[in-house]
Amino acid sequence: MARMLKEIAPQLARAAYMFSPKGGIGPLFVGSAQEAARRVGVEVVAVPVHTPAEIESELANLGRQPSSGLIVPPDTLTGQHNRLIVQLTAGNRLPAIYAFRYVAIGGGLASYGPDVVDQFRRAAAYVARILRGEKAGDLPVQQPTEFELVINLKTAKAFGITIPPSLLARADELIE
């Protein structure tokens, strides 16, 4: 996600990785997000949040720091307050990338994450196997195989960001 955010905002030097330490998989990927970002010259700082007030405070602080951006992994708290996060990133003109397309559709700058429809489709096959008598505990764990990149061009324009043609070509959906 940091690589794509850096492509969107080449001046990016620092990105907050915002997550709730109590819900979701965000805490599990802090280290790998930091390592991946380091390869593209971006410092990723873990920003655990517990409440909407903390989200507001952290984004206000981030907005005062030049060359900053935001990475929002899948998470219960940030998912629940995605409209607040989108509103605050817009107010602070912070480039941000989210894990789910519904956030980009709702005004977020970009999203890159698993294709949830594909996951539900694949889950249906598991349900069928269980209904035919297989034990749920015997079925292998599956990772997402389909990912989608969604870019909100309207938000990019409002931020004064020109999305590079190479990224536009890779996008699964462009919101105008």
What attributes does this structure have?
176 residues, alpha/beta, Rossmann fold, 9 helices, 7 strands
CATH topology assignment: Rossmann fold
Number of helices: 9
Using only C-alpha atoms, the radius of gyration works out to 17 Å
Question: Mind summarizing the main beta sheet?
Answer: 7 strands, mixed
Return the CATH architecture. Answer: 3-Layer(aba) Sandwich
What's the pLDDT, averaged over the residues? 93
Percent of residues in helical segments?
40-55%
Our count of domains comes out at: 1
Tell me the structural class.
Answer: alpha/beta
List the helices and strands in order.
HEHEHEHHEHEHEHHE
What overall form do the CA principal axes indicate? globular
> Which homologous superfamily in CATH is the superfamily?
Response regulator
CATH class identity: Alpha Beta
How many beta-strand elements? 7
Largest sheet, spatial ordering of strands? 2-1-3-4-5-6-7
pLDDT under 50 segments (min length 5)?
A: none
Distance between the termini: 22 Å
Q: State the assembly state of the protein chains.
A: single chain
